[in-house]
Amino acid sequence: MTQEPVDKYFGTPMSEWIARVPNELEVDAVGLWQIIPVGIDSFGLSGERLDDFARRCIIALLQKGAVPVRFPSGLPATEYQGSHEEIANQIVNEWKAGTLVADHDGLWFALVP
Asked: For the segment 67-84, what is each residue's pLDDT rounded down to a tens digit?
């Protein structure tokens, strides 16, 4: 039996952390830079496990109604199309290819009126 990773700082199971990610949307946008480092540092993920974590976080944000936006304009990044899963895959693949950097100036997810 495989045990689910837990946050090394707070003991939060990974699935619970992913479910909580969209809660921030009511207050502020969520940046890719907030997702990738947590997967690496807090959960000790790398490779396919990190990719899966990022995908699941992005899907959770999209399901809550968030859309990918570019910093600093806040305009929707319309190049991402398809189902939530397809959009998440496009973003993760772009990040893995090095064309999307998980930093403050990169991609964010926001509730856009």
From this structure: 999 877 888 999 999 999
Residue 76 lies in a domain: yes
- Residue 92 pLDDT greater than 70, yes or no: yes
User: 31: helix, coil or strand?
Assistant: strand
Does the residue 2 lie in any domain?
Answer: no
Phi, then psi, of 93 in degrees rounded to 5? -65, -40
Tell me if 104 sits within 8 A of 71, measured CB to CB. Answer: yes
Give strand pairing partners of 110.
Answer: 67
Residue 103 lies in a domain: yes
* Domain residue limits at 45: 14-110
pTM of the model as a whole: 0.93
Q: Is residue 21 part of a domain?
A: yes
* CA proximity to 70, closest of 14, 36, 110, 43: 110
